[in-house]
Amino acid sequence: MEATRSEITAFIAEAVRGLYPEREARRIALTAAAALSGESEAKFMADPNQRVNIDGVERCAAQLAAGCPVQYVTGKTEFCDMTFHVDGSVLIPRPETEELVLWAEQCAADHRNPRILDVCTGSGCIAIVLAAHLPQAKVTALDISHTALETARRNAAMNGVSIRFIEDDALNGMPSLAGETFDIIVSNPPYIPHSEIESMHVNVTRYEPHEALFVDDADPLVFYRAIARAARTMLSEDGSLLFEVHEAWAERTAEMLRREGFGQTEVRIDMFGKPRMTCSRRRR
């Protein structure tokens, strides 16, 4: 498409205006247009009236209009000031998960050379940021999805960090790691009950991997319980077990963790005022 930069942004924004509020539609449009141009958003809009010729604008607008997240359309997202490749094999990292990473970093400060395990790693964003911020750490990342691990390996290479990736099942005790111990075990596992699907936006339900999002309503804490039970033997004496949790299940998750032997369990409020993280230590 040949047009001014502002006209290209407006064209994309118009395509998604029915799906998003006006301000968000404009933000998505700018992100997409800048990515197509190969420029930063600030540079793209430095001269909004400059005429440019950018390929793929119409195709991009059609994908976004169908509900595809802008991160999947552009193939990238930002997390903790680092760039990650994302596609339909992995969830798109959320801003609130950055707070979980920060809390894990704070816990890791208690250990000289922390051994860190990220369970249900997906894109690898948690493990990769921890490896980048804690170069003295030995980081392992686990997921059951082979394709997700391929994406995570790509992201590790792109961000220049060394991580051991393991394909294993968090619900089956993670036998590949039998006999190993870790100072930090962190996880953002599936936790959304299937009953919430109808209330969620199409850009999530149609495009993001359901196996990384949803759990049976009959047992929404299934991943937390399984990981906590594995952590009984895998967590070091002074280690920390951290989770991102569903805001409606935060206290119930904490109570379950205490029953599983992690008496020192704290619930933390996220940037949006919601109880979305827990940190546990084994009862002594």
Question: Would you write up a description of this structure?
Answer:
By secondary structure, this protein is of the alpha/beta class. The chain folds into two domains: 2-74; 79-281, Rossmann fold (3-Layer(aba) Sandwich), CATH 3.40.50. The protein contains eleven helices and 13 strands. The chain has helices at residues 5-16, 22-37, 41-44, 57-65, 70-74, 95-108, 125-133, 146-158, 202-205, 222-234, 250-259, and strands at 2-4, 51-53, 76-79, 82-85, 115-119, 138-143, 164-167, 182-187, 192-193, 214-215, 235-244, 264-269, 275-281. Helix 7 links the parallel strand 5 (115-119) and strand 6 (138-143). Helix 1 packs across helix 2 (22-37), helix 1 (5-16) runs parallel beside helix 4 (57-65) and helix 6 packs across helix 7. The mean pLDDT is 95.
